[in-house]
Amino acid sequence: MRRRRPTIIDVAERAGVSKSTAARALANGESVLQETRDRVLAAARAVGYERNHLAVGMRSGRSGMLGLVIPDIANPFWADVARGAQDRAAKADVSLLVFSSDWDPGKEESHLRALRRARVDGAIVNPVSDALDDLNRFGLPFVLIGSSAERFADVSSVGSDISQAVELGLDHLVAKGHQAPVLIVGPRSRLARTRFLNAVQRHTIERDVDPAQMVIEDGEYTLEGGRQAMLRVLDRPRVGHISVFAANDMMAIGAMMAVRERGLRCPDDVSILGFDGIPAGAFTSPGLTTIAKPGRDIGARAVESLFDDIEGRPEHGRIYMPCRLVDRGSLADLLRQPRQLAG
């Protein structure tokens, strides 16, 4: 026989209070004494009672759910963003529905429709589509994340400070004797690629280095994309040590695979700097030196911004979150131990 689902009446009876008092206590009503609230909460745990969030949402106009649409759930950086958003939402007793668009505008639109049908209170989106109207027409409060969000200056958004991060990486490379690294970047269709290259150009010019000296290889933001780009770099005529600054850690790890595949060694023959700070970088051999983005903090801050938007207090601005250097073993110190690669 199926066990009956506990009700608010069961909680009230066990706590020795009225149904209305039990309801106010569970809703954190201010008119309930703390001792009474504690007794009601203990009774709810004892009988296994859970609030009917759908019914509560119908009365309050809120569902207690948020949506998150990220471009690639398989990329550990985006998984970290999702974890930060989930943890912050959970502190407010709010659930998070996570979707991966796979950089596909059609999937992004489908996911937003699903979120609207689920009556979420708002959504956090790394926008794939260039048209803000595509988001506005879904009628949801939303906050944007990632590099793509900078296209929409009038919308609240949260992301890494790419300019600060690139400067941090280039300064570290220069400090080790790497003046003009090869740049392994994403596809030309991605705004993140443009932002990365613009930051590189700005900071190299500030150091009186001609950015035209730098070799640029495009690829997908994946292990295989980095591997193929690095193989093309190694196929070029070269003399001396090769230095690489990859636009994300997945590409950097793929580049390390290509170096090993060609019988070379990192950092003896090739130095590689990554960008993201995913956990896998700590387990490569050698460990990947990288510029770590604050993935979890971005997710958490985006949820806080979305709460503000839902409450009618939108920030309507860009929040830039600083990155940090994680120094491991993938960069040679050419100033102390200059090496030459015959080629």
From TrEMBL:
Pfam families: LacI, Peripla_BP_3. It comes from the Bacteria. Gene3D superfamilies: 3.40.50.2300, lambda repressor-like DNA-binding domains (1.10.260.40). Keywords: DNA-binding, Repressor, Transcription, Transcription regulation. Residues 6-60 form the HTH lacI-type domain. Transmembrane segments: none annotated. Coiled coil: none annotated. Signal peptide: none annotated. GO terms for molecular function: DNA-binding transcription factor activity; transcription cis-regulatory region binding. CDD domains: HTH_LacI (cd01392), PBP1_LacI_sugar_binding-like (cd06267). InterPro entries: HTH_LacI, LacI/GalR-like_sensor, Lambda_DNA-bd_dom_sf, Peripla_BP_I. This is LacI family DNA-binding transcriptional regulator. It comes from Devosia oryzisoli.
